[in-house]
Amino acid sequence: MDKVKKHMLIRSLLIHTLPIRTLPHNVLHMIKEYSRPLTKPNWRRSKPIISTYQLYLRCRLNIQSRFKLHCIIINNIYKTDWFYMYIFIKDKGIYRYCYYNNICDSTIVNIDGIKEAVYLYNGNNLFYEYRCVY
Are the C-beta atoms of residues 56 and 80 closer than 8 Å to each other? Predict the structure, then answer.
């Protein structure tokens, strides 16, 4: 009986010293090491491989396939600031967008896809059709 009480006491002390929500230090270190890519040491400062605009074009061109992943990607793109800017510039022009948001047009014209929106606003649909067909 005495051994059982001693074992219960040690077990209760261990439970109270280590909270359930925290993991041991070596486990946290292992998770941290395996969660970052090994190929790029500066992975936090690297640029994305594909832009939102390129992803939007690929999913929009393959919309007939109706893959669930494409629908999820398109729905998530619709919620981005880039898509809002793209649609606003396509419908109302870059100067009006810059006026409402108090920014310079030279800073946003270099964003991928904005030049197409400017062309569409100006009525130059040849560029848009060429991009969609090919």
Answer: no
Q: What is the 3-state secondary structure (H, E, C) of 3-44?
A: HHHHHHHHHHHHHHHCCCCCCCHHHHHHHHHHCCCCCCCCCC
Distances in Å between the alpha carbon of 90 and those of 6, 59, 93, 97, 122? Answer: 75, 19, 6, 10, 9
Exposed/middle/buried for residue 45 (C-beta within 10 Å: 0-12, 13-18, 19+): exposed
Task: Report how far residue 84's alpha carbon sits from residue 47's, in angstroms, rounded to the nearest whole number.
Answer: 22
DSSP 89-101: HHHH-HHHHHHHH
Instruction: Give Cβ neighbours of residue 88 (< 8 Å, ≥ 6 apart).
Output: 96, 97
pTM of the model: 0.56
- pLDDT tens column, 81-97: 999 999 998 888 888 88
What is Dmax (Cα atoms) for the chain? 90
